[in-house]
Specification:
Helix content: over 70%
Distance between the termini: 10 Å
Radius of gyration: 20 Å
Length: 322
Amino acid sequence: MPESAQAALTRHARWAWAAGLAFLLAAPFIGVYPIFMMKMLCFAIFACAFNLLLGYTGLLSFGHAAYLGAAAYFTGWLIKAAGLSPELGILGGTLGAGALGLVVGLIAIRRQGIYFAMITLAMAQMIFFLWLQAPFTGGEDGLQGVPRGKLFGLLSLESDLTLYFVVLAVFVAVFLAIVRIVHSPYGQVLKAIRENEPRAISLGYDVDRYKLLAFVLSTTLAGLAGSLKTVVLGFATLSDAHWSLSGEVVLMTLLGGMGTFAGPVLGAFTIIGLQNYLADRVGAWVTVIIGAIFVVCVVGFRRGYVGELLAWQQRRRIKDEG
């Protein structure tokens, strides 16, 4: 590739990232409801966490909502019942989801393909039943009235604007951490496992150990999303751990572009935005509309938004070089 073309692509990418960050910083001041934006950012973290597992490791989990829901309940109980500060509640919920992911991962990682996916789904259903029966979760009513409190005992989170920038800072940190992980030697091994696991084994890598770590990292970050969501909305419900949410995060990842950095973020924004915009207008038909969008995505642009854009840039570079 000519150096000028490479420099132009790098410059365009930087401008795109800068524009996206500028929009997120300005969103509360241009009429976008902060609660809505925080919800989208939480699900963007969830989708990025799932993409780390599916897009970069090649492991399809059908039960990832279990870890978001677990962290949501843990955080809600720690803040409301145990009286912990929000940062400790979020930390406890995140670590709890990671520990749960470790237990499930030790069981599921021994299988591959559809068997791995089915084990994660089965374990998630067992966890869902646990939240339904556990006394501290509130059953079908959920865990309500979780206070926001003060961050580090100093910064009150009662203001939506203040909490928004806290959530935004966490989202940016998670996004940058995932970029660093993917570009690290560990991330390169994950890509090698995704592309050709037998070859990675032949090179001497303990692939089960690498996949288990990826699974735990993904579930921990999914838990962070659930913890933040509980603090933002003030409640945790069974819908946070329902199997349908596990399907939605798959849709978010595929719609935006699996194996890309920005794809899951755009996919999460699209799905949550459609759900909020169409819920009062078409009611239950929103599920049909989202399903139709998914079909169009699979048939028309299987790489997702960002994936198709990157593929178009690749074709354009080859044409220019030719």
